[in-house]
Design goal:
- With about 300 residues, the protein is α/β, with parallel strands linked by helices.
- The chain folds into two domains: about 35 residues; about 260 residues, Alpha/Beta hydrolase fold, catalytic domain (Rossmann fold, 3-Layer(aba) Sandwich).
- It has a seven-stranded mixed β-sheet, sandwiched between helices.
- Helix 6 packs antiparallel against helix 9 and helix 7 packs across helix 8.
- This is AB hydrolase-1 domain-containing protein.
- Pfam families: Abhydrolase_1 (PF00561).
- InterPro entries: AB_hydrolase_1, AB_hydrolase_fold, Carboxylesterase_BioH.
């Protein structure tokens, strides 16, 4: 009888232990989710980790062809930022700063070892912000058609303060402008606009649909935040090699001039210019894959 009671007691203790472990695991998962509410992440592949950050209003699906190219060699963490392309928005005052902090926390929580970054447009800006904030945390990275300070294009004397004081960049007004755009005809008109940024109408329509699914307040808030954040001095702290890929700004010489000017303070950089519009991974995929493969595999 005593032995039977002891067995029942041991069984209860075993069940309680498993229950506690399960509850702790659930709480840990919820904690990680809450910390990373600033983006959604999809993980595929195995190998050295790469975090792929899409551009303004785009889904992580913008990287589909790129991930198919890389997934057999790398572990890919594909992000969709909060409020973009149907992802749940956040109410933070500085959304992009929350995204930056969220990615840093994600890397630490997942114990990713020197993950590389590939960012397009706003994602390239985010790559620079991450690298300059935590230069020891990330490995080599690729910035595709993005700049440390978009507002200084063609006028390097522009400062973040002068942009903030410009009524054109009043955040409330910009958000109101986005929210006042009618739903009817949005995708059609945006598709036409996107034809200046990508060469084929199928991708232009897809990008337009992602924009339509995006939260209008997020669209307004993030464009102002990026336009009023100057990373030109901060990038001097980046230690990892950076591949910078530019689209064609009229001529190759014009592209090289603007990019060299904006990236003056970045020491370990390589600048390449693609014969392409803004969405280089769509317009020049073979060239793009060759460039990123060469860079990622280099010592």
């Amino acid at each position: 009888m005593h032995q039977k009671r002891k067995s029942i007691k041991n069984l209860k203790q075993h069940i309680m232990k498993k229950l506690i472990i399960s509850l702790l695991a659930i709480l840990a998962a919820l904690n990680v989710f809450s910390q990373n509410k600033s983006f959604e992440a999809k993980v595929i592949g195995k190998g050295q980790p790469i975090i792929l950050i899409p551009g303004y209003s785009c889904s992580g699906d913008v990287w589909n062809e790129t991930t198919n190219h890389l997934k057999n060699r790398y572990e890919l963490h594909i992000l969709t930022l909060a409020g973009f392309a149907g992802a749940k928005p956040i109410e933070d005052e500085e959304i992009l700063k929350s995204v930056r902090n969220g990615i840093i926390q994600y890397v630490k929580d997942k114990k990713l070892k020197k993950p590389m970054l590939i960012g397009h447009s706003l994602g390239a800006f985010m790559t620079l912000w991450l690298q300059s904030t935590e230069p020891e945390l990330f490995g080599k990275s690729i910035c595709m058609d993005g700049l440390p300070f978009i507002s200084a294009v063609s006028n390097p004397e522009t400062t973040a303060e002068s942009v903030k004081n410009n009524p054109q960049y009043n955040k409330e007004a910009v958000i109101n402008n986005f929210q006042s755009i009618p739903n009817e005809g949005y995708v059609k008109n945006m598709t036409k606009a996107m034809m200046y940024q990508v060469s084929d109408s199928i991708h232009a329509k897809q990008i337009a649909e992602w924009s339509f699914k995006s939260d209008r307040k997020t669209l307004g808030s993030t464009i102002v935040e990026m336009s009023t954040t100057d990373l030109r001095k901060e990038i001097a702290s980046i230690k990892s090699p950076i591949l910078i890929i530019s689209s064609l700004w009229g001529t190759k010489e014009a592209s090289e001039k603007e990019y060299n000017l904006q990236y003056t303070e970045l020491k370990n950089k390589t600048i390449k210019v693609a014969e392409s519009k803004h969405f280089i991974m769509y317009d020049q995929p073979v060239w793009f894959y060759n460039e990123i493969d060469t860079f990622l595999q280099s010592k």
